[in-house]
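Record filed here:
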Amino acid sequence: MSRPTALPVRAWRLTRMALHVVRGFATIAFVFPRIGRERQDQLVRAWSHHVLGIFGVSISVAKPFDFDQMHSKRLFVGNHISWLDIYAVQSVTGARFVAKSELAAWPVLGRLMKNAGTVFIERARRADTLRINQTVREHLEAGTVIAIFPEGTTSDGRDVLKFHGNLLQAAMDADAQIVPFCLRYMDVHGHFTDIPAYYGEMTMWQSIKLVLRERKLHVDLSFFSPLPEEGRGRRELAAAAEAMVRERVRGHTPQDR
């Protein structure tokens, strides 16, 4: 086990993050209106990659041969562990996220996420799901890359919860590709860690403090080939994605579990 970071290091990381958030607001307010979608996506990827760097998180990406993770008109679906997940996926895809409405209430970051194009959903309301499906379909038809966490909540990363298929209907209606992805977090020794996990009764600040204590973390992001949709409904596609991600999550060696 590595020693925790010193208090000055944690304070410096928080300061850097605060300045980075200010920069994000300024970019969205003054730069985004004057540039095209491709350039916006580049800035989103760069901003998210910098967030990972601030918190000492490195990232590796595994993907099928000849797979372009920035291909347009695509819905990414994967497991949800941490508030870092969004930045990990955005750092290599520039995807806009569909997230639960509670995140919109986060101080500062919630506002930034909304301004950056995040679509918030009240999962308990069926009517809201229908509205979001229509919104996601319109974004996909326009060529936007969208990402969702179909578990509907976070876990500790040791397994995968049930994937719900409601929002996959938007991709089917838009004739967009559905691409599963898997996130795994590891410590400096390459072993599984639940330090970044933000779940249960844990508060956002408690989770951030745990991450701040770590000198280095690593996230492994794996993409799978687009799911064949012929003859399958959204529930079958969700189950297929869930099985693929679960197999990858359980691929750790025994000492990692």
Summary: The chain has a mean pLDDT of 87.
